[in-house]
């Protein structure tokens, strides 16, 4: 990419803002400067600008910097997890009843995925997880659903930092493979996990989008592979999940029009 001449300060400010989006739990001034290869004084000055405008905040106790309330317009601020879980629960319960499988509600937490809610299947053989459990982004349907609908500048910061651990022979264990998969996810508005993290386990997930079409969470159905064949994933569960994601988004963001994701340009 060729930078616009004379716009170095603007590029640096956007780099700092993007870096804040990567570190959901906050980042130290020194760590930020080191990652961006900027002088400490420059990084401090840029963070002060963002704090003055509400795009960043500094914790008075830990001194860590995080995204501020104004960053919500960029679609990168985390929702309160309790509010997310409470507003989503009726939809999740209906989804579990209709699918008879385990249902997950998840959010991105830094470079990982974190379960906010997990409703277990009524069936004796089931997929399960614990609230607060952290799992990889690249090897889960939920993680891919979120990554595909984050702001592009944030995705470009996240992808090189994922560890791409290979859990099974189906794991997308490289950045090019994951990029190609994310293009597919954008076109479908749902993601699949075909035994990519655990053998004999499959799942399908849809992103929950805010007013700008950015993913704030994902909703997922998971089950043993023998109950999730391709037909059931694509013809039965994917439409249910897209509908559930739209219903949750409408509860969270009343002005969101159902089934109206942002445009999804293909990356080259």
UniProtKB/TrEMBL annotation:
Species this protein is from: Saccharopolyspora spinosa
InterPro entries with a match to the protein in the record: GAF-like_dom_sf, HTH_MetabolicPath_Reg, Tscrpt_reg_IclR_C, Tscrpt_reg_IclR_N, WH-like_DNA-bd_sf, WH_DNA-bd_sf
GO molecular function: DNA binding; DNA-binding transcription factor activity
IclR-ED domain mapped to chain residues: 70-254
Biological processes, Gene Ontology terms: negative regulation of DNA-templated transcription
Record protein name field: IclR family transcriptional regulator
Ranges for domain HTH iclR-type: 4-69
Top-level taxonomic group: Bacteria
Gene3D superfamilies: 3.30.450.40, Winged helix-like DNA-binding domain superfamily/Winged helix DNA-binding domain
Keywords for the protein's UniProt record, in alphabetical order: DNA-binding, Transcription, Transcription regulation
């Amino acid at each position: 990419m060729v930078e616009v001449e004379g716009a170095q300060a603007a590029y640096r400010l956007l780099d700092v803002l993007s870096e804040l989006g990567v570190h959901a739990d906050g980042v130290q001034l020194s760590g930020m400067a080191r990652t961006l290869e900027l002088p400490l004084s420059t990084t401090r000055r840029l963070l002060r600008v963002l704090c003055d405008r509400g795009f960043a905040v500094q914790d008075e106790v830990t001194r860590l910097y995080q995204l501020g309330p104004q960053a919500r317009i960029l679609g990168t601020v985390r929702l309160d997890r309790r509010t997310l879980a409470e507003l989503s629960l009726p939809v999740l319960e209906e989804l579990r009843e209709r699918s008879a499988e385990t249902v997950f509600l998840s959010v991105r937490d830094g470079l990982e995925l974190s379960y906010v809610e997990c409703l277990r299947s009524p069936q004796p053989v089931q997929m399960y997880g614990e609230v607060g459990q952290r799992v990889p982004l690249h090897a889960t349907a939920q993680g891919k659903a979120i990554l595909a609908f984050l702001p592009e500048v944030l995705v470009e910061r996240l992808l090189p930092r994922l560890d791409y651990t290979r859990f099974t022979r189906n794991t997308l264990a490289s950045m090019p493979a994951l990029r190609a998969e994310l293009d597919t996810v954008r076109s479908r508005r749902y993601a699949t996990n075909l035994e990519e993290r655990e053998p004999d386990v499959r799942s399908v997930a849809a992103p929950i989008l805010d007013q700008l079409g950015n993913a704030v969470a994902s909703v997922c159905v998971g089950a043993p592979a023998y109950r999730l064949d391709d037909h059931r994933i694509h013809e039965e569960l994917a439409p249910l999940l897209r509908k559930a994601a739209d219903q949750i988004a409408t509860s969270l963001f009343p002005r969101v029009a159902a089934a109206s994701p942002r445009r999804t340009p293909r990356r080259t």
